[in-house]
Amino acid sequence: MSMIRFSLTRALVAVACLMPHLSDASWYAAPFAADIVMVNPADPKDRANGKLFVGSDRFRSEGVYQGTKKVLIVNMADRKAYTLIPDKKEYYEGLSEALMPPRPDVERMPNDPQGPCKSDPQLSCSQGGQEIIHGIASEKWSVKATSKEGGGYGVTLWVDPQRRIVIRQQPDQGPLMERKLLGVEKIDGRDTEKWEFVHSFKEQRNSYLQWIDSALRLPVRMGEGRQANMELSAIREGSQDAALFQVPTDFKQVNPPPPPSAQGPDGKVNTPPPPTGGKGVRYQ
Predict the structure, then answer these.
(1) Taking Cα atoms as reference points, which of 134, 61, 140 lies closest to residue 102?
(2) DSSP conformation class of 15
């Protein structure tokens, strides 16, 4: 059974998960723009195309979702998001369905000054020397977490300090997760590293592939076997126009659409309160 439960809708709304991930890890290595396509391997007709623009601490995603062109602007420094509907010259505060830039392939290392081992008092970390994992020189770390109630759990990590990635992760209980470098390939004219990611638990083994751009350190292709379900192309490195990350002054603010569950006893959608007037929504 495949480890990937591919859902285009889940992939489109992944920004809510992406924001804390990016703040916990590192931002992109350099500003860039790119085209993106996501395809459901089970149904090639179920696909979404769009454009990405990544700045120093913010990004813009453009695409068509359910027949409506939408633009999502996310400012990571202020943790604010805006959804634009260009055809109507409207915008609302908050997130929407959008094609997201893939998360950078960079992790905070256990010994980083701002890493979890230094900042979380409930974590204790100890280095256990160096080992070669799938040909990669790796540091072995034991990470133990304790709760105020006295319980706890642990995980052993093997990290590549040069690439700043986790090569193997083995929790006390749960699946073994590891990655193996299969080689280097050209994707759309750019140098990439091809990695196999494997999750193993008891008798089950699931795997998928990622091609990591060597310069930008982010996935430019993801998939299983020969079927890609996400791909970046036409990557253009360089500074992006600041106007891309701003709400146009002639756009009118409107209420965000209510979630599907926001219904009253009569089955009608409850009317959300009027906008407060401030641009942007802050996430705690």
Answers:
(1) 61
(2) H
Q: How far does CA 70 lie from the centroid of its chain? A: 19
CB distance 214 to 191 below 8 Å: yes
Q: Tokens in use for 1?
A: 């059974």
Higher pLDDT, 87 or 65: 87
The 10s digit of each residue's pLDDT in 210-236 is: 999 999 999 999 987 667 789 999 999
In the prediction, which pLDDT does 150 show?
58
Model confidence band, residue 114 (pLDDT cutoffs 50, 70, 90): confident
CA-CA distances (angstroms) from residue 43 to 97, 188, 227, 228?
19, 24, 11, 12
Residue 145 to residue 123: CA distance in whole angstroms: 5
List, in sequence order, every beta strand (DSSP E) within 86-146.
90-93, 123-133, 136-146
Which is more confidently placed, 47 or 137?
Answer: 137
What three-state secondary structure class fits 214?
coil
pTM of the model as a whole: 0.79
CA distances from 256 to 9, 91, 223 (A): 18, 8, 33
Q: In 116-185, where does DSSP find H-type helix?
A: 116-119
Mean pLDDT of 9-38: 64
Buried b (16+ CB within 10 A) or exposed e, 125-156: beeeeeeebeebebbbbebeeeeeeeeeeebe
